[in-house]
Amino acid sequence: MSDFTTLPDLAVRTLGGSVTAASDESFEEKENLINPWAPAFRPETFGPKGQEYDGWETRRRREPGHDWALVRLGLPGVVRGVVIDTAWFKGNYPPHASVEACAVDGHPADLSGAGWVEIVPKSPLTGDAAHAFPVDVERLFTHVRLNMFPDGGIARLRVHGDVVPDPAFLTGLTVDLAALENGARVVECSNMFYSSPDNMLFPGLARNQAEGWETARRREPGNEWALVRLAAAGTIRLAEIDTTNLKFNAPAEVSLTTADGAPLLPRTRLQPDARHRFRLETPEVDHVRVNIFPDGGIARLRLWGDLAPAAERALTERHRALLA
């Protein structure tokens, strides 16, 4: 697949995505499209509607037209690529699909008047395969519409891209500068054997070990680390390092530094399965390196602070430009 699949899935349910409407869901529910797990299948599991699939499946159309599903992105942003996955749909997949996108304020019930833009043209699909489509449209979107021609089943829709936060909810406020939903990302990492370091930046609490960042067991000298690009430059007032659910594989210690190694939080002992909070007074920073000693996992990282004035202006200007 293309490199865009390393970017956050703006549509996934765990980041707040929602399938708000569909033309039909006679066989399988539309909500399955944005489930976070890989599609599964158990043969000969027949319910009242037929073989059960982990995806969205419509009836066989006997009239002109095509089926569609409308997805509200959990995190609005610039879409860099779309994956349409027909996993397990072998004799009932749609032969073609396309994707449109739009940007609207709030949560309107009616999007018929929205300015829809085609971001993936009508393209051929095959059965039981993940199809990756790069997108080159430099605009902010809040919703996507998946069209399949004429009917059939699609297991998952992934909408990868760059998060673009609304500055109205950031400027003038104390915010989590490390939150994925505010535009932060892990841009470098020493080890992500068990799970992605971006998981640390997800909203909410981690429900289990898999929903955080966890490294392999380190057998050589040194330590593991992750470099976080903050939502924007700012000063950090409170750091929260959460090892919830990591009972036997939490790091022994942690430190925070700038990208070039200047200390922000000295090397500090951590406890397993615990939420740690540290008051800080940092200089203006735009990247933070999280160092864990020697290895292990972190469920969540929060860096609460204030945006720099120049960063506030830049966020506002970028948001306005991408809506133009």
Protein model, in words:
The protein folds into 2 domains: about 5-165, Jelly Rolls (Sandwich), CATH 2.60.120; about 165-310, Jelly Rolls. The protein is mostly beta strands. The chain starts with 17 loop residues before the first strand and ends with a helix. It has one helix spanning about 310-324, and strands spanning about 20, 45, 50, 55, 65-85, 95-100, 115-125, 130-135, 140-150, 155, 155-165, 175, 185-190, 215, 225-240, 255, 265-270, 275-280, 285-295, 295-300, 300-305. It is built from 1 helix and 21 strands. The model has no long low-confidence stretch (mean pLDDT about 95). Strands 12, 13, 15, 16, 17, 18, 19 and 21 form an 8-stranded antiparallel beta sheet that branches. Strands 1, 5, 6, 7, 8, 9 and 11 form a 7-stranded antiparallel beta sheet that branches. The chain has a two-stranded antiparallel sheet with strand order 2-3.
Q: What would you say about this model in short?
A:
By secondary structure, the chain is mainly beta. The chain is 5% helix and 42% strand.
Features:
single chain, 324 residues, mainly beta, Jelly Rolls, 2 domains, eight-stranded antiparallel sheet, seven-stranded antiparallel sheet, 21 strands
Helical amount:
under 10%
Q: Sum up the overall morphology in one term.
A: globular
Q: Please, how many helices?
A: 1
Q: What is the residue-mean pLDDT, rounded to a whole number? A: 95
What is the CATH architecture assignment of the largest domain?
Sandwich
For the record, the CATH class of the largest domain is Mainly Beta
- Write down how many β-strands occur, each being a DSSP E stretch of 2 or more residues: 21
CATH topology of the largest domain: Jelly Rolls
The CATH superfamily label of the largest domain reads Galactose-binding domain-like
Radius of gyration: 21 Å
Distance between the termini: 31 Å
Poorly predicted runs are none
Order of helices and strands: EEEEEEEEEEEEEEEEEEEEEH
Q: Given the helix and strand composition, which structural class is it?
A: mainly beta
Please tell me the total number of domains.
2
Strand content: 35-45%
Largest sheet: 8 strands, antiparallel
